[in-house]
Known about the structure:
This protein is mostly helical. It has helices spanning about 5-20, 45-50, 60-65, 75-85, 125-150; strands at about 35, 105.
Amino acid sequence: MRLFSVSGLLVLTLMVPMMLVCGGRGSQRCRFPAIYNFGDSNSDTGGYNAALAEIPSPYGETFFKQPSGRASDGRLIIDFMAENLGLPYLSAYQDSIGTNFRHGASIATGGSCIQPACGYSPFNLAKQISQFIHCKARTTALYNQLWDNRESFPFSAV
């Protein structure tokens, strides 16, 4: 029996020291503008639900008051981390309709693993990193386009 998942261990390894250094909510020592989350169902905020199959109720209803696409009826560790850093909950990268990636995204997908073809999700770690690189390139291009057009409406002073 597996006691810890790979993503859970990675979260503990990377995030706990960061939170100890940065302090608690509202700390001015560390101001992270965004979180990008990789992993499996332990940190999936709706990627599996959006890309592969709908996760049925009651998942999410206890805290979010509606199905959230999470494989949990409440918040995930990544949700508590976002709260601690003063950021909104992460939207699933795979569910881009009506989402805001200004403060990051969750690329995690339930059933994922590090090696290709070892879980029941096609989104292994290499695929998740590829999605992140694609997201970063698209976001950078959009930002540059908006920056170049900042003198025109709606960015100009009216």
